[in-house]
Amino acid sequence: MGYLLFDLHITITVLGAISFVTYEKLAGNGVPMHTVFYPLGVLYVLFILATLFLIVDKPINRRILNGLFSGLLICLAADILLLFDLLDGSLLREKYLLLDGLGIFMVASAFRRKKSHFLNQYQDRFTLSYAHWELIRPIIQYAGVFILLYEFLFVYRENDILFGSLIVTFILVICRDIISIIQNQSLVKHLKLFNQQLEKKIGERTQELTDSHKDLEEAFKQIDYIARHDTFSRLPNRRYLEQMIEWKILDASQSRTMVSLIFLDVDRLKHVNDTLGHSFGDQLLLHVIERIKSCLPSEAFMARHGGDEFAILMDSLYYEEESKELTAAIIETIEAPFHISGKELSITLSIGVSIYPEHGESVGELMKHADLAMYKAKEDRQSKVIFYSPEMDQELVGKMKLLTDLHAAIKHNEFLVYYQPQFDIHTGGLSGIEALVRWKHPKHGVIFPGEFIPLAEEFDLIVQIDDLVMRTAIHQFNEWEKEGIAPPRLSVNLSPQQFAQGNLCSKISVLLETAVFPADKLVIEITESVAMNNEEYLTAQLHEITAMGIQISIDDFGTGYSSLSYVKNYPLNQLKIARPFIMEVPGNFNDTAMLRAIIDLSHHFNLSVVVEGVETIEQLNFLKSINCEEVQGFYFSKPLTTRDLEHSYLLPFKQSV
Fold first, then answer.
1. Staple partner for 354: which of 33, 370, 527, 574, CB 3.0–4.6 Å?
2. How far apart are CA 624 and CA 542, in angstroms?
3. How open is the CA angle 83-86-92, to the nearest 5 degrees?
4. What is the pTM of this model?
5. Where are the beta strands (DSSP E) in 27-105?
6. What is the DSSP letter of 60?
7. How far apart are CA 39 and CA 76, in angstroms?
8. Element containing residue 196 per DSSP (H, E)
9. Residue 425 and residue 167: Cα distance in Å, rounded?
């Protein structure tokens, strides 16, 4: 802003010089000095006002500025016209009074609080910006310099005042330009520094936006991953599986190949969770996943379909045998026992397979049929891998109808308790009875347990059936006790789900106390699957049960996960050898050797042995020869109703006593 002072000095010098020169010229005509200085003074005031008003940070109100400039310009015009009249010698000042008065009025009206309606339409036309004034001001200055130069060279060569003013003006102009150059250089320097800072800020902001964009992309990727994967196993979830099946079907339809969808279910995982804890079950699942993955080819897609269910998707297949080979490899690798947290555990898988396009051409059909085949495998104890077949649809309809009827049967107590006698092999006398359940269906008659017990276990209805059978059998045993015809002991079967309830011991205790039933005459039969999956938990419950005086028997020994460890560690009283071991005795050398070894081992652990399924005299004689204690089977009697058991065995037993 320093060069503005030079502008003011230049203006004063130029206007002063011109004023004196003009006065010298007009003095001879009798023109007063103030007449010459009027227009020049007004120009000087206009220049100063324009400079001051335009350089301040907060310019004066535009209405005031326009009023001042408009009034001063009118006054300037009046004074110039008056000066020209004086030069012509015709002085009629009165005709300029009106114009001069208008200018003074406009200057005065500029400071009014309210804008004049009369001036409103004129003052807004006179607008002057700082940029415009920056262009106009040097032109005015240099024009003044050229006027002085012209006057000195061509009009007043000998005028000292004019010459001195010209020299001062030149010096001021040169100094002003030098200062302008210096200030411009400083301004350029500041602009460069400002640009550098601005570029730095822009760079930092750009980097922030880039980082933010990367973070946003990473967040979107994470959200997409979570939406398509199971958080526990890190495997693709059901939603992702359905998308992949859809894509694979599309590819296979174009390449004319097959797609295999394999569903796998970890058997009895719920029981493991209930007995050993969910943390143990989670570790087991992770081990199962790793073993399954080790069998998969690189192009296979594995997903978690549900809590204990997984799915494998294979495409570009030409033969169904490729799926059979893979499922066989998976079954083989799962058969080896798992060692988790110091415990040894064996599990099985139930596997169902559906093939595109043979078993369905849509995502829904393939998944439905693979799921149906998998549940068929769970029901079939002989085969753990089943491929879908159309007959399963009708079976499913029947199964759902049976389930509905089963709920009604529990509600209306449609179950019957049959009893199969057990005999002392040496004396032939009755040694006990086993309570077995039958379902008296209102339309289909008597239904055997093999048809509805698996369904009851699958849909958590088995505990209610177990309780019903136990109450009925104990009540009936008490009735026989009153009549004096009760057998030596009563055996009842309990499902694995009973031990997962957590209240089995207290429930049995309350039942025996309520029924006033002697605990030493009750035998509880459990399966090997119970014994293998919950060693510590089961051991505590069995010890609590045996402390009441109740006996414990392992049912169907040899058909499940036979292990000598639980024979040694559990508080057992009896082993019941399953029917498959006796079917080919005595003709099959391996079966006879195995039976002999099992019975010898049982005697070593002070366990009595009951052999199930005895149907011939040859089988009975062989069992006598190897010191088996008790037998039961169709050779002696099939399961009987209460009345038939009484007439066939209990009443004759009383008479013999």
1. 370
2. 31
3. 100
4. 0.56
5. none
6. P
7. 5
8. helix 160-228
9. 149
